[in-house]
Amino acid sequence: MSDLKEATKRKASFFATLKAVFWSFLGIRKRNDYEKDAAQLNPVHVIIAGIIGALLFIATLVTIVKHVVAK
Questions:
Q1: How far is CA 69 from CA 24, 31, 66, in A?
Q2: Radius of gyration of the chain (CA)
Q3: Taking the CB of residue 46, how many other CB atoms lie within 10 A of it?
Q4: Which of 17, 32, 50, 53 has the smallest number of CB atoms closer than 10 Å to its CB?
Q5: Measured at the alpha carbon of residue 44, what is the angle toward residues 12 and 33, in degrees to the nearest 5?
Q6: Beta strands in the chain (DSSP E)
Q7: Structure confidence at residue 64 (pLDDT)
Protein backbone atom coordinates (compact mmCIF):
# COMPACT_ATOMS: atom_id res chain seq x y z
CA MET A 1 0.00 0.00 0.00
CA SER A 2 2.87 2.39 0.70
CA ASP A 3 4.12 1.82 -2.87
CA LEU A 4 0.85 3.24 -4.21
CA LYS A 5 1.07 6.30 -1.96
CA GLU A 6 4.68 6.82 -3.01
CA ALA A 7 3.78 6.47 -6.71
CA THR A 8 1.04 9.11 -6.50
CA LYS A 9 3.56 11.65 -5.19
CA ARG A 10 5.75 11.54 -8.29
CA LYS A 11 6.83 14.86 -9.75
CA ALA A 12 5.96 14.71 -13.47
CA SER A 13 3.43 17.28 -14.65
CA PHE A 14 0.08 16.39 -16.18
CA PHE A 15 1.31 17.77 -19.53
CA ALA A 16 4.28 15.36 -19.42
CA THR A 17 1.81 12.57 -18.73
CA LEU A 18 -0.35 13.60 -21.70
CA LYS A 19 2.74 13.60 -23.91
CA ALA A 20 3.78 10.13 -22.74
CA VAL A 21 0.26 8.75 -23.28
CA PHE A 22 0.13 10.31 -26.77
CA TRP A 23 3.38 8.61 -27.75
CA SER A 24 2.10 5.38 -26.26
CA PHE A 25 -1.03 5.57 -28.43
CA LEU A 26 1.24 5.87 -31.47
CA GLY A 27 3.48 3.07 -30.28
CA ILE A 28 6.63 5.13 -30.76
CA ARG A 29 8.75 5.21 -27.65
CA LYS A 30 12.46 5.02 -26.88
CA ARG A 31 13.42 2.65 -24.10
CA ASN A 32 15.21 5.40 -22.16
CA ASP A 33 12.16 7.67 -22.34
CA TYR A 34 9.89 4.82 -21.26
CA GLU A 35 12.06 4.02 -18.25
CA LYS A 36 12.25 7.70 -17.28
CA ASP A 37 8.47 8.03 -17.56
CA ALA A 38 7.89 4.86 -15.54
CA ALA A 39 9.92 6.36 -12.71
CA GLN A 40 8.36 9.85 -12.81
CA LEU A 41 4.74 9.64 -13.96
CA ASN A 42 1.89 9.63 -11.49
CA PRO A 43 -0.28 6.54 -12.13
CA VAL A 44 -3.50 8.48 -11.47
CA HIS A 45 -2.50 11.03 -14.12
CA VAL A 46 -1.74 8.19 -16.55
CA ILE A 47 -5.22 6.72 -16.09
CA ILE A 48 -6.92 10.10 -16.54
CA ALA A 49 -4.79 10.93 -19.59
CA GLY A 50 -5.50 7.50 -21.08
CA ILE A 51 -9.24 8.00 -20.71
CA ILE A 52 -9.03 11.48 -22.24
CA GLY A 53 -6.93 10.13 -25.11
CA ALA A 54 -9.34 7.28 -25.76
CA LEU A 55 -12.34 9.63 -25.77
CA LEU A 56 -10.60 12.00 -28.20
CA PHE A 57 -9.67 9.08 -30.43
CA ILE A 58 -13.26 7.78 -30.49
CA ALA A 59 -14.66 11.27 -31.13
CA THR A 60 -12.25 11.74 -34.03
CA LEU A 61 -13.22 8.41 -35.57
CA VAL A 62 -16.93 9.12 -35.21
CA THR A 63 -16.50 12.56 -36.80
CA ILE A 64 -14.55 11.12 -39.74
CA VAL A 65 -17.09 8.37 -40.31
CA LYS A 66 -20.04 10.81 -40.18
CA HIS A 67 -18.27 13.11 -42.63
CA VAL A 68 -17.49 10.28 -45.08
CA VAL A 69 -20.94 8.68 -44.88
CA ALA A 70 -22.70 12.03 -45.37
CA LYS A 71 -21.27 12.42 -48.88
A1: 30, 41, 5
A2: 16
A3: 19
A4: 32
A5: 40
A6: none
A7: 96
pLDDT score of 2: 62
Report the distance separating Cα 42 and Cα 4, nearest Å. Answer: 10
One-letter identity of residue 35: E
Decide if 34 contacts 5 (C-beta within 8 A).
no
- Please state, in angstroms and rounded to a whole number, the distance separating the CA atoms of residues 45 and 18: 8
19: three-class secondary structure by DSSP: helix
| The pLDDT value given to residue 31 | 83
DSSP, collapsed to helix, strand or coil, labels residue 30 as coil
Q: pLDDT by residue (tens digit) across 34-59?
A: 788 778 888 888 899 999 999 999 99
User: Residue 8 corresponds to which amino acid?
Assistant: T
